[in-house]
């Protein structure tokens, strides 16, 4: 099942509402990332709106660990993606999700992290039209920059040239900083601990000073620096119709975020077992999925989370009248293969059998 033969033998704020005085007081850095991917909606090639990230606060290392580059914090990025995307595509109560927050502990690459995520709006609702792949690209670029300045705790503000904003506080556990505190001075919705971020900055000015603001390169960086990373190719097969249609990618962003996260996690853990689940897209259609890795003995790939979600998003737009299918993923000329079964008609075409 699912190329079993191949498996065996293939070896995240209201203070920053564009008020310039506040921005200069915080001495922020701005970094803009252009998502150059094309959209197939309306059968036109439309340039996607870029995401932006603003570094509000950042501290240098106190303990032995700093924030790793994007290649080392894929689990962090994937987890934060899932949180933000779930919030801003939430149906049918988009206007009721502003002010939601989450604090998550996660270990990635042998480093213990804690992140704080918060969503707010300068308009009427906290929804956003941005794609998961755009947000993943932005977070990856931010992590590469933060690693380059040896930051161990940060607060960044994310926006999509609209009213939606996402706040992400991130800290290594060894830094001794609370990511929630790091963002508490940035927006009114965050609760402060007894020792606020201003107190900490003053009390720790000698031992743990905030990193001096620096202008961030606004040019999009390729994965891995100057060398463009290899993309993932996706082949579609066993396409079936006869039931509810799998929605276009703009209606399936929560699915793409979750499935992309599962694929990355299985690869990270070198886990060759299959994983399955189901989610509703923005049209209310339930899509069942089953994923299993193969191609080598560890079932892993060097592809970053942003590469995985981009491949899924780009391929998703070609489904059109499809109710079930198999997607086979390959990362360049490597041996890894990813097999993804999707189905809206589980009785007739179970997702678990689409790639048999």
Automatic annotation (TrEMBL):
UniProt keyword annotations, A-Z: Signal
Domain of life: Eukaryota
Leader peptide range in chain numbering: 1-25
Pfam families tied to this protein: DUF6736
Basic and acidic residues bias spans: 178-211
Domain (Secreted protein CSS2 C-terminal) ranges: 108-175, 225-344
UniProt-listed InterPro entries: CSS2_C (IPR046624)
Region (Disordered): 173-227
Presence of the UniProt keyword Kinase in the record: no
Name the record gives this protein: Secreted protein CSS2 C-terminal domain-containing protein
């Amino acid at each position: 099942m699912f190329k079993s033969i191949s498996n065996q033998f293939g070896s995240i704020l209201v203070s920053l509402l564009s008020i310039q005085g506040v921005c200069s007081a915080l001495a922020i850095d701005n970094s803009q990332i252009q998502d150059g991917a094309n959209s197939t909606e309306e059968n036109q090639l439309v340039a996607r709106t870029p995401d932006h990230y603003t570094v509000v606060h950042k501290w240098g290392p106190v303990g032995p660990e700093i924030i790793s580059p994007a290649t080392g914090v894929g689990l962090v990025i994937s987890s934060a993606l899932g949180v933000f995307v779930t919030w801003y595509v939430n149906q049918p109560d988009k206007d009721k999700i502003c002010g939601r927050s989450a604090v998550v502990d996660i270990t990635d690459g042998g480093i213990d992290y804690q992140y704080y995520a918060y969503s707010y709006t300068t308009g009427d609702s906290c929804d956003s039209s941005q794609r998961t792949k755009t947000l993943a690209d932005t977070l990856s670029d931010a992590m590469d920059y933060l690693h380059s300045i040896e930051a161990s705790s940060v607060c960044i503000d994310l926006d999509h040239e609209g009213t939606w904003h996402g706040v992400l506080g991130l800290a290594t556990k060894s830094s001794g900083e609370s990511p929630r505190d790091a963002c508490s001075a940035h927006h009114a919705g965050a609760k402060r601990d007894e020792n606020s971020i201003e107190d900490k900055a003053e009390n720790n000015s000698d031992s743990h000073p905030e990193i001096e603001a620096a202008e961030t390169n606004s040019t999009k960086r390729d994965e891995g620096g100057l060398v463009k990373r290899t993309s993932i190719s996706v082949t579609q097969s066993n396409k079936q119709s006869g039931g509810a249609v799998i929605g276009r990618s703009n209606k399936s962003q929560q699915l793409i975020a979750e499935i992309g996260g599962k694929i990355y996690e299985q690869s990270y853990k070198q886990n060759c077992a299959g994983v399955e689940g189901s989610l509703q897209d923005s049209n209310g259609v339930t899509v069942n999925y089953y994923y299993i890795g193969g191609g080598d003995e560890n079932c892993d790939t060097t592809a970053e989370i942003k590469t995985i979600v981009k491949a899924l998003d780009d391929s998703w737009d070609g489904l059109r009248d499809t109710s079930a299918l198999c997607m086979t993923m390959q990362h360049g000329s490597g041996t890894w293969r990813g097999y993804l079964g999707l189905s809206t008609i589980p009785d007739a075409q179970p997702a678990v059998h689409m790639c048999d």
